[in-house]
Model the fold of this input.
Amino acid sequence: MLAIFGLGNPGKKYEYTRHNAGFCTIDYIADRHGIKINKIGYNALYGEGNINGEKVLLVKPQSFMNLSGKCVSGIMNFYKLENTDILVIYDDVSMPVGQLRVRTKGSAGGHNGIKDIILSINSDVFPRIKMGVGAPQHPEMDLADYVLGKFTEKDMKLMGQAAEKIEENIQLAIKRDYNALMSKLNVKIGEL
Done:
């Protein structure tokens, strides 16, 4: 089984904000594969289903971004999952809007949700997909305000293409073929 975690903040106030790129991608994958995200537990909204015959959990932690680790470690403990049995999808301000990058290990890079996961599972070795949301245009803009801001219409289209690209290649993650997934998703924005 693969547990796919899309990071974000719960509540209507945060819908379609840059920080909720992970939530939006989970919703897209769920919609494409007829998986209902209707279960509550482990500090999450989640759904169980199958993608190409393989069992998956699609998870949206509900403990707010900075406390995502409790949800991830709770699900890993209950389902007896290894680090290779999870995939985390989240926003990244260091990349242009819509750009994707797959990694199987590494630091949090300043992302508080990833930092909390690393602390909670006591490891930085786990697969993840970063979704570029761009950086603030003005250096004096507060980063928290930026990531909690909504996408422009143009950026929303690019993020939709990025979510589509992830979904089209999710089978590679299910097979744990992260080298192939990197070759498909680590692309420049113009190639989306």
